[in-house]
Write a structure and sequence with these properties.
Length: about 160
Amino acid sequence: MSISLHPYSAKRGKQVQTDKWQFAITGAVTVSPRPIDDVSALTTFGALAQAAIDAHLGTSSEFTAAQFDATSMGADAMGIILDMGGQCEELYSVTARCYSGTAGATLVERSFEDIATLQDSTLASECAKGADGNIGIKLNWGNTPDFDALTAGLIEIEVVWRAK
């Protein structure tokens, strides 16, 4: 997480923060976090089990398996659950970038604002703050790039939020 350069004050309140997560594409529909020991993000290109979500966040059903099921996580859709330590007060937006090709020359970008709750079984790109202050993200890359065939590249997730 980032550290705000403008601390809380009665006049300004808590500042909006922008944090980034990076994932190296290491194989077809496979990514690993950069740095490798960053365990704050749970990622999937397939369905997630409720037990895995709850274990990652240490909460009970803050996000549900139905929000990250096989229908919503099609071949080129990605699910990300960010453990913010329960500190997200407001989520504003997410921008996702995928760099692939020679020297990352091909860029695909998705940007969207938060919604109240992630929808079940949809391929929509959306993000939401959970009831316990963590963040769920679903990205539909739209078959460009084709993650079933892509074996190298970089995914960068930029989250704009405000802490409690």
